[in-house]
Every structure is written in C-alpha cells, then in structure tokens.
Amino acid sequence: MWKWLHPYAKADRAYQLCNTLLPYFAVITVVFMIIGWIWGLAYAPADYQQKDSYRIIFIHVPSAILSMGAYSSMAIAAVIALVWQLRNAELAVIAIAPVGACVTAIALITGAAWGKPMWGAWWVWDARLTSELILLFLYLGVLSLYHAFEDKKAAGRAASILAIVGVINLPIIHFSVEWWNTLHQGATITKFDTKAIDSSMFWPLMVNIVAFAGFVGMVTLMRLKNEILQREKHRPWVRQLLNRG
Amino acid sequence: MQLAGPNGAGKTSLLRIIAGFSTPDEGQVMWQGESIAKNYDEFARQLLFIGHKTGVNSQLSAIENLQFWLQIQGYNTDQDLYSLLAKIGLVGLEDVPVRTLSAGQQRRVALIRLWLNDAKLWVLDEPFTALDKAGIAFLQQRFLAHLEQGGSILLTTHQDLTTHFNELQTVTLEYRH
Amino acid sequence: MLRQHSYWQLFSAVCKKDLQLAFRQRAEIVNPILFFLIVITLFPLAIGPEPGLLSRMAPGIIWVAALLSTMLGLDKLFRDDYHDGSLEQLIASSYPLPLTVLGKVVAHWIITGLPLVLMTPLFALLLNLDNQALIATVLTLLLGTPLLSFIGAIGAGLTVGLQKGGILMSLLVLPLYIPVLIFATSAIDTSTMSLDYSGQLAILGAMLVIAIISAPIAISSALKVSVS
Fold this sequence. Notes:
heterotrimer, A: 245 residues, mainly alpha, 78% helix, C: 228 residues, 9 helices, elongated, Cyt_c_biogenesis_CcmB (chain C)
C-alpha cells in the first residue's frame, strides 16, 4: 500500500518531485490570488453592517484555515518521518513549520486589525483568536526545539515528535478554549457565521482560500528543496546540479 | 575485537551505533542474522554496554547502584554483592555515596557489572580509563574468562592488548575530512 | 544468573530510586512547595487583600502556581540520568522503555504533585476559599497534577540533551497545559456556585487516562532521540 512512497526516500527523487510540483503550485497561486484579491477587494459588495472593513476576511479567513491545515500536514509528515524513518519527511516537517507560523501570525494580525473597528479594541479574548495564539506558540515550540539541537538528525526527529504531540493536543486545546469562551462571555457575537455569509462574498472567499493553499504549498516546496540541498550538499548529485547551474 | 584510531575518528560514535543508541546514516547493524532495529529488546538482552558515561549514579552507594542495575536488567538481586565488591577492591566503601570515591574506584563500580551478567556481547568504551595496573590486569582476566565461555567483546582502548589476547582483531578507524 | 522478567520489579525499582534520591536531597521536595507558597503570597500583595476578590481569583492563582511549580522539578526529571549514563542503561535494558518512563513519571508526581494536593487546605486558608471550593480544588489537583507530570515529561525528554533546555522546555510544555488549566479552574469556579462540576472532573479524568496510555510512548521516543 505504501510502496509508492519508497522511491521518494531517496533525496534526489524527492528533489525532482519538488521540481515537478512547484510550477503547478506557482500557477495556482498567481492565478487564484489575482482573481481572489480583485474580486474580494474591489467587486464583492460591502457588508451592510461592517462596511468595507469586513474585506479583511479575504485574508484573515484563508490564513486562519491554512494555519490549521499546515499544522496537520506537518504532523502527517512527522508521522511518516517517525514510522517509516523517512529523512525527507523530517525535512518536510521543518520546511512547513516556519511557513505555518507565518500564516498563523498573519491570521492573528489581521484578526486583531479586524477587531479594532468591530470591538473597538485591538485584542479581545475571542475563542478563535486565542486558539490561533496558542497555535502560534505550538509552531514556535517546534521551531525553537529544532534550532536548539546541534545534530540536525536528532533535531528533525525531536521536532517530529513534538509536532505529533501537538496535533493530538490541538483538538483538545481548541475544544477547551471554545468552551472557556462560552463560559466567560456567553453572549459575544461570533465573527463569522458561515451560514449567514452571502454567496457574493462566499465565492471570492473560496478563491482566496485556494490561492493561500497554493501559496503555502509553493513556499513549502521551495523550502523543502533548500533543506534537501543543504543536507545532501556533499553528495555527488548535488555537486552535479550545482556545476550545471 | 579492539577498535583503534586517533581521537575524533568516530570510535565512540560507532560503538553507540552498534549498541543501538544512534541510527546510522546508511546501512544497518546485524546481530545473529537480524537487524537490531527490528527486535531491539531481544538484542538488548544479550548486550552489555558500558560507555564513557558509566551509568553510575553519584548520589547512591555502590551497593544501591548495583542493585538498581540488576533490577532493571531483570536479574536476581539476592546475590552476594559485598564479596564481589571486596574482590574488586572496594572493601569498606560499599555504603558511601559513589561521588566520594576516586575516579578509579567509580570506574570499578561500573565495571562490576562484568561479573554480574550473562550477556554475550560486551560493548565497552575505554574500559581501562582511570584504572591502576592491578585493576587493568584483573579486568583482562575477566575478559579472558568471558571469551572462553564463547562471549565476544568489542572495545575501544589505547592500551596494547596483543600480549594477553591472541585472538585479538583490531579495526583502525581513520579521520576523514 | 537467572533472569526473572517482572514488570513490577522494574517499575518499582525505577520509582524507588527516584524517591530515594529525592528524600536524600529533601530540597527537591521542599523547594517546589515553597515556590508555590511564595507565588500564592505574591498575589494578595499585588492585587490587594480583599477577601471577595481573592476567593474569586483563587482557582486561577492556585492552578497557575501549580503549573509553574511542576515545571521546577521537570527540568531535573531526566537530567541526572542523562549525564551519568543511566539513561543509556535503561534503554539498553531488556524491558520496554515506556514502562521505565512510567515509573519515573509516577515518582515525579509523588515528589512534586502529591505534596501540593496535601497542602491545599493551607492554600485555601490563605486565599479565603470555602469548604466546597476546597474539596473541588483537592479533586482537580488530584486529577490534574499527574497530567502535568505526564505532559511535562515529554518536554523534559525532548530537551534533556540540550545545554539550556530549561526555558525551552517551559515554552514547549506550557501551551500543552492550557486544557488542564481551563477545565480545572472551571471546576473550582463551578463548585463555588454550588453547581455540579463532575463534567469537568470527567474530562480531566479522561485526559489523564489518555496521557497514561500515550505519554510514556512519546516520552520514550523523545529520550531515544536525546540519547542518540
């Protein structure tokens, strides 16, 4: 069942795979991002309550979704790294982590910026924002653990273990924070009710989500390529590649 | 079998890979026809490893250390440890914390395990460090007894062992840039 | 030289050794309690001694102090074993490592968690908690502090090989403590309103069960990485 994975255990094959996938991700990112931003920021109708300030959701919502998505993909890579002892999967964990952390930071900053006109404060202990903040802590934990190790082999494995522990805890944290929030400020309006969103806003949002996913995938692939090259820099195939280019 | 080579050649790293603590970049360690990574517990049962870090807790006494080690290896603890400690020259020091002993005496506490196990493979990193001449001779006797019983020993040392062990094989590692 | 594999022997040996060491250096047991006590003293000084305010904040104060004081002992949990090579001997023992780890975590809880549970009446007195809340606090600490030990040991295992692992460990572990904090404090809060808080206790219990089963596996793979 997992036989198809085996060729990619070899670093040069994984590198080639990155190279093949990269253009697709790049095209998706560019096309969807241009459409999504123009549609969302210029053509989608203004909200009758929030006026134009709601338009930040075209960045906030995709980045919030991708922050979770990136964490789960990181954890999946971590499981592959530990169970099948694939070093390339460890590199993938490390390739995703900073990208995920950045996306999470974007979600937090845009969330705070949105909170200013809505609640009149930059920071409100809203359940989603709090979860995002904790998620950022988890990302930073994985990153700082990785960089604390001198031996990069051990670093990759340690970061993978932490990513898996984090992903097991993430639903529990999420649930507990939601629950804490309803307990303490029962009647706040949640920021976006998916049912209430109009299709004139929904479709540009979807386009933006795809654009963001493409972007995260693209940056991750580029980072993964770098990680592979850096680890394999003494191998003949890398030397060949460098001499050619 | 002796593992030789200059400082930094990778003797300790190789021993740690063989003992299963580190994983090699390439290749695998085989024991009796099986990769040790596959069935590590089975391999561990036949392995005795004493590294640079000897695994002796400095707050506990020699006796407590040995009893703990016997327990975690699954051996009986009702053995006569006192006479064994006397044999290796630690009379009267059985019950003081190990940290108050000298380096050579601490090393002896760690090496007593060689008399207390039925492991086939001994992996020893610099076992002679800090031992005096009598201690080294005594240890070499124990090595011979183990070899006679069909056991194998893999060690690193800068001592010359050829005079006592005629079946000695030496592998020399060299530093590579 | 017969080997008689008994898991109980291993578990008790590991547990006993750590307890023995702790009782020989009593500071290890006393210091976290003192730390806890001092942190609790700081709060009335910082926010004012008004009894109503204190009893409202007490659950939060007690639990934040508990989180911080368990962190103190965690740093030492595997450090000595790592430096003197005992960890290698434990890995190379013919017993499964998760069981060994379980013994060490239980010992850690007896040294740092259990004293907190036993000292709760005193803390309750200082923070003006009534009897209902006192019982709730004892129950949450009883279920929650072992959880802290299990989760924290994962961080301790990951950072034991590092030069300055202490602060990094708190960064890794504290976010994972958040659910424990939320459910425990909410249980105490609920009890002060004379409502039923068995739901929160059940969640804490469930998390503890999951931790007992899965944390030792994570801790032992973390230790193997640190030793390699």
